[in-house]
Amino acid sequence: MNSEGHLDCRHCKNRYKSLFCDLKEEEVSVLSLGKACKTYKKGEEIFIQGTPPKGIFIVNSGKVKISRLADSGNEQIVKMVNSGEILGYRALLSNELYSSTAVAIEITSICVLPRHLFFQFIEQNATLAGALLKIAASDLKQTERKLVDLSQKTAKERIAEALLYLKEIYGYEQDQSTINIILTRGDIANIAGTTRETSIRVLAGLKKDKIIDFIGKSIKVRDFQGLVSLANISD
Amino acid sequence: MNSEGHLDCRHCKNRYKSLFCDLKEEEVSVLSLGKACKTYKKGEEIFIQGTPPKGIFIVNSGKVKISRLADSGNEQIVKMVNSGEILGYRALLSNELYSSTAVAIEITSICVLPRHLFFQFIEQNATLAGALLKIAASDLKQTERKLVDLSQKTAKERIAEALLYLKEIYGYEQDQSTINIILTRGDIANIAGTTRETSIRVLAGLKKDKIIDFIGKSIKVRDFQGLVSLANISD
DNA sequence: CGCCGACTTGATTAAATTCAATGTCGGTGG
DNA sequence: CCACCGACATTGAATTTAATCAAGTCGGCG
Q1: How close, in Å, is residue A191 to chain B by CA atoms?
Q2: Rounded to a whole number, what is the distance in angstroms from the first to the last CA of chain A?
Q3: CB proximity A89 to B under 8 Å
Q4: Count of beta carbons in the 10 Å neighbourhood of residue B230
Q5: Residues A130-145 pLDDT 10s
Q6: Residue B55: which residues within 8 A CB-CB, separation 6 or more?
Q7: 3-state DSSP: chain A helix, strand, coil percent, rounded to 5?
Q8: Which of A96, A124, A133 is the closest to B132 by Cβ?
Q9: pLDDT tens for residues B13-37?
Q10: Which of A19, A96, B51, B228 is deepest in the core (most CB within 10 A)?
């Protein structure tokens, strides 16, 4: 396996199980035959809302946002993705056009597993299908929680939760307190389902209350517990 | 197969594929061994948020709402379920407590497939796992759309969409225009993610604009296209 | 008959969006 | 080197939306 296209479980740092962790060696090598890897620049689109899916994407390195755009130009971020995760399986499974757009947040290396190979694998490999089911179930839970939050929580609670979410996905930097991703205020707003202005105001408030700090363009969590209680997590 | 526990595809009326449509005859009979059926009265709980899942539920007849309750007592309906659909697979798959509560909207007959049989089946039967994957993917899409709607649409648009959603799930009565389910204004509000009062006001407005009518406790769609354009559906 | 739950309506309030203006920072080209 | 540009950030004020609060009505049922 070359450096561009690892499928090795040891590299999966976050809580999402890598889809291919359970595969045997020979299966991995078969899998890698069909792969095509590509590097995306910051801001580059990996797939676009309304286009047909060609395969699934395996994020090798980098960070991706998946968002839905309304006609109004309004953007809602549906999911943030880190390296080791898979991308775009939803539309493929239900055989529909992409209902969201994936954009690289920073320079990102991604491998494509073409549609036919993907289906071949899940048909032949029950473990794989099971792993995918778990990923789907996890995604569904996440999304349901966001749905409920959006209808029941204040903008402040949602922003706090968005920060916790980002910490969960991307973790901290070496200092164990700075969230390991750089986003614009607008992106944070679009995760929390609010506007840039409120996101700015709420974040400024959190800084004043010594819950967070701004380190350059990054956000440092000074009071994790404070953030948790602000976010009002129920489950 | 007794009258209580059909698993026959012909009875699945709505757009959700029944999980067991693709099973062969002998598989169906094995499946039915582990089944326990039960009838739930209106308002009765099928499973409860925070409790561990025992199996999956197959809705034989009746109607169910799945909702999450906040500590505040606030309720958000995550999904409405009709007969022929399965229930409660999410928590089972990710091996977690239920994150939502399922309540019968009307008298409802439900079969339980115990946990171990469920897992046995999806491990042995790739078709079944595939079908479940499709259901999960479809649910995920639905939920993502609701999420985006909640953050981008007005209460009026969301109520209109809720009505279309109910029509989609439950269909019309014989008159081809009355939505085949009876809900309180509060329930409609909880689907649309708003309050009882706004739901009442918006529905009254729709009636005045001759988009809908109230037939007893049911809602009749007088101007479907009007409803669609109000709902501002993008995809 | 009286109560309960659901429905309705109006008035008030709070939260967050929208609008508008200004500020900051990094890069680019003369 | 410096002026300018563009993207993003910030702040204040006005506005809008929908939630909340507060009565009062209706219909069925014990």
Answers
A1: 10
A2: 40
A3: yes
A4: 21
A5: 889 999 999 999 999 9
A6: B88, B92, B112, B113, B114, B115, B117, B118
A7: 40, 25, 35
A8: A133
A9: 333 345 665 555 555 555 565 568 9
A10: A19
